[in-house]
Structure formats: C-alpha cells, structure tokens
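Researcher: Following up on the earlier apo prediction. This time include the ligand. It's flavin-adenine dinucleotide, with the SMILES given after the sequence.
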Amino acid sequence: MLAPLACTSPPPDSLWRHLAARAGTLDAPVGSGPLARDLHTDVAVIGAGYSGLAAAYALEKRGVPCVVLDANPVGWGASGRNGGVVSSKFRLSFPAIAARHGLDVAKRMHRLAHDSVRVVESLVDEFAIASAAFEHSGSLRCAHTERALAACIAEADWVRTELGDRSMSALTRGEVEAESGSAGFVGGVLSADAGTILPLEYVLGIARGLAARGVPIHESTPVVAIERVSGAPGVIVRTPAATVRAKQLIVATNAYSGLTSATAAYQRELVPFRSAMIATERLPAGLDAKLMTARRSYTETRRMMKWFRRADGRMLFGGRDAFGKEGQQTGFEALRRAMVALFPDLAGLRIEFQWSGYVGMTFNALPHVGRSDDATVFCLGYNGAGVAMASLVGQQAAALALGETPDLALLAQEGLRPVPFHSLRAPGVRLVAAWYQFLDAMGA
Ligand SMILES: Cc1cc2nc3c(=O)[nH]c(=O)nc-3n(C[C@H](O)[C@H](O)[C@H](O)COP(=O)(O)OP(=O)(O)OC[C@H]3O[C@@H](n4cnc5c(N)ncnc54)[C@H](O)[C@@H]3O)c2cc1C
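Model: Understood. Below is the ligand-bound prediction.
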C-alpha cells in the first residue's frame, strides 16, 4: 500500500458525489489502483479527467497501448466538480473570431464547437452512461441589459447568415421569465445545440468503459518527474513506486497542473480562476413547477458570469469567485446573494451543498493543444467550458501524439507560452475581477 500523498486532498463534498454515492457509482471500481510496477507502453497520459480519458479513448480505438496516471481518483479535478453545462461555444464569439482571423477560420471553429457536443453524445452512447442523464435541452443566455441583449441577438443573426447555423433564436423578456422563473432579465438567446449532464457520472462512466476495454487507469499515482534520455526517443515518467517508459506523453492536467513540479510548467500556460457552486435543498412543489421548467442550462451576460440549472429537484447556481481561497465561505455567500437577487423565491431555502474548483483561463480565451517537445503533447485551457470541448480536444491530443494532423484551427499551439508575469496572477485576477464586478454593478 502506498503512503498517502502530500499533493492530494479529499474531493469536495459536492451534490455530484452525493448523487453518485446514492446511485452506487462512486463505489464501483474504475481504476487499476496505484501504479506498483514498471511498465513500457506507447503513450502515457497524465490526468484522468475528460481530457486524459478522451485521449485514452482515441488511442484505445486505434489499438494503441496506453496508460492513464492520476494523482487522485478519477474525476477529482474539474471534471468531477463542474456545473455540467454542455455548450457548443468558445469564450470568444464566432463573429469576433471572424473579425480577427477571417470567416474560414470562424467556420472551422464553429465546426469544432458543435463537434464537441457530438463527442459527448457518442461517448454517452458508446459507454452506455445513462446515469450521466445527458439532456440535449439547449442553453439559454439571459441578458441583464438591453445592450447585452442586442449583442446576443446580433451574434445569433450573424451565425445564421454567415455560418448557416439556425440553432440560435431570440427570446423576449416574457419568454425568458416564463421558462426561467426569474424577472431579472430583459430577454435572451437560446442555443439549441447544448444541454446538461451530471459531470461526475459522465467522467466515471468514461473511465469504467475504458477499464472494461482493458485500458489501465492508475489513480493515486502522481507523476513526480518526467525525463528524457538524451539522444533516445520517448519519455520516462516517474511516479512514487514505479516508472513508465513511453514513446509519447500526453499531459492533460489543466488547471491542476501545479500538483507536482513535474507538470508545473503547464500551470504557467494558465491563469487559474476559482469557480464555485451551490445547490439548494429540494424545491417545494410550487417552485419545482415554476423554475427552469425546460430543464436547460442557463448563463447570463454579466462579466462575472453566473450560471444555473436544475438537478435532483434542486436549484444549482454557480459563478466565478476570484476572491476567496478554495472552500472559503465568503464566495459561497456572495453566490447565494446573487441567486436570491435573481430568484427571490429561493430566499428561505437552505443551501445543502457548496463546492469549488479551478478552471484554466488562457490569455487568448481559447483552449491550447500542441507539442511541448517531440515526445510530449499537451491540451488545456478550456476557459470554464470544458465538458464538451475537453472530450473532443483530448481525442485530438491523441491524434497529434500519433503524428496525425487533426484540424485544430485556432486551438493549435506550438510549444508552451507561459502567461507573462505569471507569479503576479493572483493579485492580477483579483484586480480584473473587482473591475468587472464594478462594471456589472454599474450596469455597463
Ligand atoms: C466549479 C466548476 C464549474 C465548471 N462548470 C463548467 C460547466 O458547467 N461547463 C463546462 O463546459 N465546463 C465547466 N467547467 C470546466 C470543466 O470542468 C473543465 O474544463 C474540464 O473538466 C477540464 O477537464 P480536464 O480533464 O482537462 O482537467 P481535470 O478534470 O481538472 O483533470 C486534471 C487531472 O490531472 C490530475 N493531475 C494534475 N497534475 C498531476 C500530476 N502531476 N500527476 C498526476 N495527475 C495529475 C488531477 O488530479 C486531475 O484529476 C467548470 C469547472 C469548475 C471547476
């Protein structure tokens, strides 16, 4: 038995863990236990979230031997903690992409975004992950000002005329209020190619499916060193008890890359932002029938964006919280206040679950996929929208590792490019967030 690891902490007590424990999926073994003996393989993958498991899935489908290593249990990172909003977008809008990079690039990015939702559907189907309760119910972006609404509608019009995509449609103030139950918005835009999923069930289901196909997934196995032998191909990946020699390495550690010094270089690609969620007690019947009856995911247009959805008869409310440390109470209280401001009916309800995690933001607001050297591929930086995108991008990382040339459009990046002044990121994030909150409060 390996000693407990200094770099790990227990997973947060989220609603998702509660549901998985109730369904019995949390106890079903998914991994092969900590790595205890040396091995040789074609591709070693670090990280057992959506990215790493999607990479392993693509390798397994091509018959390429691989192994997945994670310092923690499957889904311990963002993949087991997120809001389960499945979206077909990037943080950068398609018109903005076209303005900067041309229409052809916008078309390729648009295809990637929608392909990512297809990947979620096919993984759920292929591994029969009914417990993930994926619903292709759409996502409603709720506008907090007339100006924000006009911008959302202009984007939907542009996507329809320039990209031929008819999946976005405008909703009036009354329609948004009728289906969300909140009078706090002036209207919204519905994206039909989106939905919700139970995120922990999804990642556990993929891991179970891979394990059943013989892919070794070693949990509680931190990578403590990555070495190259000069003049020789491949990598040596060291873990506390054993070593993996592989022809190629995929680093899929995203916002948790700083867990050990071996992967810390990838952390410097990102500005990690804390993201927090709360879940109420189960709603009484009257509210159950009034709030978010279409069971979509909902986001809003404020800069410090909040999102909300229903699950297990509860209201879930999430948002970026740059101020507190992980698990600090102030951020959760701010979330509760924001929720009650939009849904005054919820004022008296208990918050039964609260948890948080880190999302990886990038300077160009897009995910990055590329090679950090001739034996190592990385994928990271989903900017808080990685449920679908990481499921796709992990597969593209696998293709890159095998020498293929997937269309990555603007996601492609050659080499690591650390965020400038990375050591100042924490005060920098706080400053930007404070400015955004000020603008939001002013209705700007
Ligand atoms: C609170 C929250 C809400 C979110 N909501 C949404 C949402 O609603 N919709 C959406 O699309 N996205 C959302 N996201 C973002 C989404 O969850 C992530 O983009 C996605 O899960 C990233 O997956 P990943 O596999 O790349 O990383 P992760 O799931 O974070 O996995 C990384 C793994 O790497 C392991 N690791 C790190 N370093 C090492 C090492 N040295 N050795 C071994 N293992 C290591 C970690 O233990 C971890 O398990 C949210 C994120 C958070 C935190």
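Model: The two ends are 57 Å apart (CA to CA).
Researcher: Noted. I'll compare it with the apo version next.
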